[in-house]
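quick q for whoever's on today - can somebody do inverse folding on this one?? i tried earlier but teh output was garbage lol. C-alpha cells:
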C-alpha cells in the first residue's frame, strides 16, 4: 500500500472541492497538492473528468470525484475539520509511464495497486488493499 495526501480548507475558504492524490513517492504528493492548491487560490477550477497537464511535469492527470463512503477511511482530519461529511473531494489520478490510467486497457499492472478508484463506491471497487481499509477498526 502506498501513501496519500489531501487538502483541508479549500472548501471552507474558497468553496472549491478538497483534493487528494494517492501513491506518489516521498513528498511528491504534498508538493502536487500544494501547487494545485495555489492554482485553485488563483482561480483555477477543477472539473470532474478533465485532463490536466499542469499538475505533474511530463504527465497528464485526470480529476475524478470521490464518493463520500470513502471519507472516514482516508480523510479523517477533513471530516474532523468540517464536523461531518460530505465536503466535496476530488481525486487527482495519474497515469502509468505510457499515459494510461488505471481504468484503461493495458494500464501497467505494476501500478494498479498504487491508487484506489474512489469515484467507485466500496461495493463496486476492485478487491485490493485500499478496499480493505476499515474506518471503524480500533
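ok took a stab at it. sequence:
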Amino acid at each position: 500500500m502506498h501513501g496519500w495526501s489531501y487538502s483541508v480548507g479549500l472548501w471552507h475558504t474558497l468553496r472549491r472541492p478538497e483534493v487528494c492524490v494517492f501513491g506518489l513517492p516521498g513528498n511528491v504528493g504534498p508538493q502536487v497538492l500544494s501547487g494545485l492548491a495555489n492554482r485553485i487560490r488563483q482561480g483555477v477550477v477543477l472539473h470532474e473528468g478533465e485532463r490536466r497537464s499542469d499538475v505533474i511535469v511530463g504527465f497528464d492527470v485526470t480529476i475524478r470525484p470521490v464518493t463520500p463512503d470513502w471519507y472516514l477511511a482516508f480523510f479523517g482530519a477533513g471530516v474532523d475539520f468540517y464536523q461531518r461529511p460530505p465536503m466535496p473531494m476530488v481525486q487527482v489520478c495519474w497515469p502509468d509511464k505510457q499515459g494510461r490510467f488505471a481504468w484503461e486497457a493495458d494500464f501497467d499492472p505494476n501500478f494498479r495497486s498504487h491508487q484506489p478508484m474512489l469515484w467507485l463506491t466500496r461495493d463496486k471497487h476492485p478487491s485490493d488493499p485500499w478496499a480493505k481499509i476499515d474506518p471503524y477498526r480500533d
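fwiw Residues 28-41 form the longest helix (14 residues). also The radius of gyration is 14 Å. so keep that in mind when u check it
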